[in-house]
Amino acid sequence: YSDCSKHYCLMTSLPLHMVLFSFFPFPADPIDVLRVLELSENMEGVSLEAGLCTSRRGMEETDLAYKIKKIQLSAPTKQLFPGNSKFPENFSLMTTMRAKKGSQFFLLSVYDDQGMQQLGLEVGRSPVFLYEDQHGQPTPEMYPIFKKINMADGKWHRIAYSVLKKTVTLYLDCQRVETLDLLRGDDAVVSTDGVTVFGTRLLDEDIFEGDIQQLLIVEDPQAAASYCENYIPDCDFALPYNSQAPEPQKASNATKRRQCIMEKLVYLFYFFFLQLFHSLYDKAKL
């Protein structure tokens, strides 16, 4: 059986176990954009500084973040989605960062192989959530705009977008801000055949300057709502990853905890049906 004492679950070989797990899929591991793009303090214009929290309960180390002075990185989008994996239709896009006060820029931009921007995470005053599917929907005049907020005020912010069906919801600093229409088509696709750009847009003069601790894409539109619990919690709680040496593409402790809970539920179902079977069998014998 599973040993979840440290949130590490060992799989069993029970056929019923495997069947039930197919109905309860685990949350997908996050795509760590900064790691895939190989952002490093060894780059010119990049240094390692304190992040959102200078101290956390039970930890001596501070959060770590990259301080960036106008650099931009790019890589083929297939590096974020290797093999035959695709950009998820429904997803969360989440970051913890502090932008230079008064700035306005795109932190992340995803382009198709024709150079059309299909996804853009804007930071600044009244930011737009840029999204266009393979058919160019929605058109620029219909992009969702989150008015009356300012993400570039010189303070740390935890920003999480949830894209689900034809809506996009913004969570800012652990609070749901608003849900807006995302008038994309059915079976919307974001291409992985193009390039992903960090810190700006192609041909843009406005480039990110500030600090960034994390930038994730998660194939789970519900992840955005729990970003402040499962990914970057408040300073009273430990990080779910080792800020000194985070491991790439591994499930967070929060994900492992959910896996353990799910395993326990599976066993409860298993023993429930086992007891039910024995009870029915005994009654049949009578």
From TrEMBL:
InterPro entries given in the database record: ConA-like_dom_sf, TSPN-like_N
Domain Thrombospondin-like N-terminal per the UniProt entry, residue ranges: 30-221
Transmembrane portions of the chain: 265-281
Record has Transmembrane as a keyword: yes
Entry protein name: Collagen type V alpha 3 chain
Organism ancestry: Eukaryota, Metazoa, Chordata, Craniata, Vertebrata
Keywords attached to this entry: Membrane, Repeat, Signal, Transmembrane, Transmembrane helix
Organism domain of life: Eukaryota
Gene3D superfamilies: 2.60.120.200
